[in-house]
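To illustrate the input format used throughout this study, we show a single complete record. The first block contains the structure-token representation of the backbone; no residue identities are included at this stage. The design step must infer an amino acid for every position from geometry alone.
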């Protein structure tokens, strides 16, 4: 499997992943990764931000 095939598989799965994650099935993101990430962040109150990360903007929506 090369990087182009991996990219096709990832793109083909993106809509399903987004639907399942938004329905609460991404338990590692919701209960481990996101809380740990937010714990490391400094205060963002009053700041502007730009989401240039991977995914559907979940963390950016929570921070807003």
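Output of the design step:
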């Amino acid at each position: 499997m090369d990087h182009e095939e991996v990219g096709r598989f990832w793109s083909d799965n993106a809509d399903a992943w987004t639907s399942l994650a938004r329905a609460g099935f991404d338990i590692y993101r919701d209960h481990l990764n996101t809380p740990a990430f937010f714990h490391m962040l400094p205060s963002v109150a009053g700041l502007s931000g730009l989401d240039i990360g991977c995914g559907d903007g979940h963390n950016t929506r929570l921070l807003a």
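Structural context for interpreting the output: The mean pLDDT is 93. The chain is about 60% helix and 0% strand.
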